[in-house]
Amino acid sequence: MTIRMAHVLPVLTKQLAHWHCFERDAWVCHDFPTAELSENSVNMIAATAARCVACSGKLSFFGRRLAYSYHRCRDCGTLQLVPLPDGRELAEAYARMYAASAHIDVDPETSRHTTRPYHEAILRTLLDYRVAGAVAELGGGWGGLGELLIANGFSYRGADPSEEMARHCRHRGLPVIQGDIAALSGESYCALVLANVFEHLVDHDNWLTQANHLLCEGGLFVSLQPTAHFAYLAGQLVRGGISKLPLPAIHQEFCPPWHAVFFSMDGMRALTERHGFALLDIRPAPQGRARGITGLAQYTLECVNRLGGHVLGLRWPLVVGHLFVFRKVHEAP
Q1: pLDDT per residue over 288-298, tens digit each?
Q2: For the chain, which domains are there?
Q3: Which long-range contacts (CB under 8 A, 24 or more apart) does 18-23 make?
Q4: Closest CA to 139 of 86, 198, 185, 89
Q5: Tell me, what's the pLDDT at 221?
Q6: What is the DSSP letter of 250?
Q7: What angle do CA 97, 37, 91 make, to 5 degrees?
Q8: If you count Cβ atoms within 10 Å of the first and of the last residue's Cβ in the chain, which end, N or C, has fewer?
Q9: Left, alpha or beta for 320 (phi > 0: left; psi -120 to 50: alpha)?
């Protein structure tokens, strides 16, 4: 079967415009309540904001969303907020208000249904690489991945920055504590897994150093996350290439400050190699499974992506995210 972009792009553009309409209802990427934060919440991390966080390349303005600006790396294609939000105050915001921000489904059962394809993709990856030891998860959300891993025989421990989400997981019997990656210290793990979390981070060098120290020699770091290629394409299509127009939410894709960085595939390789990791594998991520017309659109796009992936592989541009597999090859400084 021959797939022509001239046939696919009009369908995608129509669907992106449809998702953009959801900004008026329950799928809206709600405004970050900046009134509750001091001005320091958007302070510049000077050394990072001036350059790409992945490869240190030069940045160009891409577009604004709410009170935030996304810039694109001229070298690796990574998209990032400039300036990046202040990490400490962002952590406090996650702890207090993320569970109710509508960036993630506020109903735990709905969230587990929507995110199950992501969790199943991570489970398949761990099985493919024959991971047999303890697995840690950062950003466990409402507990869907933790429950799936435990049901399949994995020793599991999780952490989530949201107090409400961590408490919900514990009520379901999951060993999840409230906190960031530092909360997982004290043990050595064979794998560290993230499901739609890495795009939320702002202190990548420090985070990856800690991740390296958590893993045993040869341990795996597995991250499923939205990537830059689709975000760039969608942002351009919806705005007709006019960078002065505001970026649309696109079903919570451009949702600052929660989504701080969309890494490109080259950007992820460059960033992780500096911290003792080697890239083993990149897989197209599945679509989520929301209910109703949004879920139908997600399923349709996933079918198109499967066909396109057979033709162009990782160069197929309509895949929203990717699953990265890295192996720890040496200790980080």
Answers
A1: 888 888 888 88
A2: 5-328 (3.40.50.150)
A3: 18/293, 18/297, 19/248, 19/249, 19/250, 19/251, 19/294, 19/297, 20/238, 20/248, 20/249, 20/250, 22/249, 22/251, 22/294, 23/248, 23/249
A4: 198
A5: 98
A6: T
A7: 50
A8: N
A9: alpha
